[in-house]
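@channel sequence for tomorrow's demo:
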Amino acid sequence: MTPTLIVLALAALGVALVVWMTRKKPSATTTPPAEGDTAWNDPVSPGEPAQPIDDRSETAPPPQVPQEPRP
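structure tokens (generated this afternoon):
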């Protein structure tokens, strides 16, 4: 008789747990989150065009290219 009561108590506990986890919560009056300014649709203004290395000014130092020692 005792094992049957233990099984019934565990089953009741399981059912109560499932009912508690799946119960419908009261709907709260929530407002959607305020959308921040993400600028995803702002027009893109072009910046300064990149200058190729060949078009550098005469006063600029030459670019330093690291040389690995060769055997």
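heads up for whoever presents: The first helix runs from residue 2 to 22.
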